[in-house]
Design brief:
Layout: H1 3-17, H2 20-33, E1 55-62, E2 65-72, H3 75-88, H4 93-98, H5 103-106, H6 109-112, H7 115-143
Antiparallel strand pairs: 1-2
Helix pairs in contact: 2-3, 3-7
């Protein structure tokens, strides 16, 4: 599935849910389904700065694709990071850097998140793109 297909699917899923209380329940359920991050990765180095809740983001590069794993100590935040992991994981660094999660605006999420959650979500996205930039540089260096 391409990153655009993932985005389209997320938009369809949220539009099918209806009102925002139902959508929040879905976000929480996504977080509950997210595999817990091993304790060894819950370090200061993996903490996403700018989130009010604790959010840990760990990455690996497999077959030139970035694999994200994440966890959080707050239900909605964990659901948000699960959504971002679903969107960006198993994509190339270039795809991560060139595709923004436009579904956030298209489903009206920005209007329904508190300012602190909205800032935290932006921080998650920024951190994921920073990891993608680092992996892109690493891959370019390996090609030389």
């Amino acid at each position: 599935m391409t990153i655009q297909e993932k985005q389209d699917r997320i938009i369809r899923e949220f539009k099918a849910l209806g009102d925002w209380p139902e959508r929040y329940k879905y976000i929480i359920k996504l977080g509950q389904k997210l595999d817990s991050l091993d304790e060894e990765y819950k370090t200061d180095e993996n903490l996403v700065r700018g989130c009010q809740s604790q959010v840990w983001l760990h990455t690996d590069l497999e077959d030139d694709k970035v694999i994200f794993k994440a966890d959080s100590d707050a239900a909605i935040t964990k659901g948000l990071v699960a959504l971002m992991v679903r969107f960006y994981s198993e994509e190339t660094p270039d795809d991560i850097l060139t595709h923004n999660p436009d579904f956030i605006k298209q489903i009206g999420m920005q209007e329904h998140l508190s300012p602190t959650r909205s800032n935290g979500l932006a921080s998650m996205i920024k951190q994921m793109k920073i990891y993608a930039m680092a992996y892109k540089a690493k891959l370019q260096q390996a090609e030389k």
